[in-house]
């Protein structure tokens, strides 16, 4: 895949954003403005248009209050040619088009964007499911096959749960066989990817000036060698509970900072730093896989970070072909600076930025 640049982003009825088109140059675009101006909304719209993905469970939230439908469009420059990605939102549905042709998320370039934001701390302090989502979403972008196996696995888990609740003991060997096959694939893929992810996250953590070492490990509820036996061993319990408790859908990505699990012992700033290291590792892995660095979206470069770590984020943004960096202060050294206010974005001349 060749380099992807977001040359323009258009939105209509997207949260509080005024309808219109913003053009982005190569290098860093800095966006500053007061709380509630729409900075996060703009990055969220950009990420959606670039990747087709959003972490919002209710798509209606993205549609401006009082409206029924919303629309985002990314004009991408990709190896000398222009491509248009459109996402329409409405009635809880998402429709995508690439160059006018109806598409699915899987058809969009898989390594085109990384989004870094203060909420990433939830990766560290939140529940295992957030960390699994981080891992699964990254691995699905690295390998389409992983994504396929994962959705097959998840479907099998819910069908097996239904069979458990119905007390269909006689059918369990069929579900177990399917589960072991798919689940083993997932565990092996995760293990392979984790060794590189761990290396990259450690490096990033050190570069961030952390004096504590960071180690990533998988906490698995079972293992490929013992999966079938573990399922058989917990059959009675799973029948009683009506749910599958053994398998990679229960695994966790353990983040150990110094001698302790970061989830329980890290300070707020340390947690943000660990999350930053994970995002940096994500960026590097995607760059390794696709041969080009993704568009980097950085939300609130000032939040919870000391001056050194802010500088790290700004340096990271300057090191990729294109980045959009928001904050309540402006990012120094940006190629373009926009001021955000009430969902509108106006260009600020360089001399005004200095002032
Ligand atoms: N569906 C929606 N319709 C209309 N307005 C919305 C919708 N969803 C969110 N908003 C509004 O968008 C505004 C801007 O939110 P946003 O998170 O982008 O601000 P921000 O500039 O990132 O602020 P901060 O500096 O506090 O992070 C909020 O005031 C919110 O109420
Ligand atoms: Mg914000």
In a few lines, what is going on in this structure?
By secondary structure, this protein is of the alpha/beta class. 42% of the residues lie in helices and 25% in strands.
Describe the structure.
Keywords: ATP-binding, Cytoplasm, DNA damage, DNA repair, DNA replication, DNA-binding, Nucleotide-binding, SOS response. With about 350 residues, the protein is of the alpha/beta class. It folds into 2 domains: about 1-110 and about 295-355, Rossmann fold (3-Layer(aba) Sandwich), CATH 3.40.50; about 120-295, RecF/RecN/SMC, N-terminal domain (Glutathione S-transferase Yfyf (Class Pi), Chain A, domain 2, Up-down Bundle), CATH 1.20.1050. The protein has 11 helices and 15 strands. The strands form 3 sheets. Strands 2-1-4-5-6-7 form a 6-stranded antiparallel beta sheet, with helices on one face. It has a 6-stranded mixed beta sheet with strand order 8-12-13-3-14-15, sandwiched between helices. Strand 10 and strand 11 form a beta hairpin. Helix 4 (about 145-165) crosses helix 5 and helix 5 packs across helix 6. The radius of gyration is 22 Å and the shape is globular. The model has no long low-confidence stretch (mean pLDDT about 95). Bound molecules: adenosine-5'-triphosphate (ATP) and magnesium ion. Magnesium ion binds near residues 39, 40, 299 and 300.
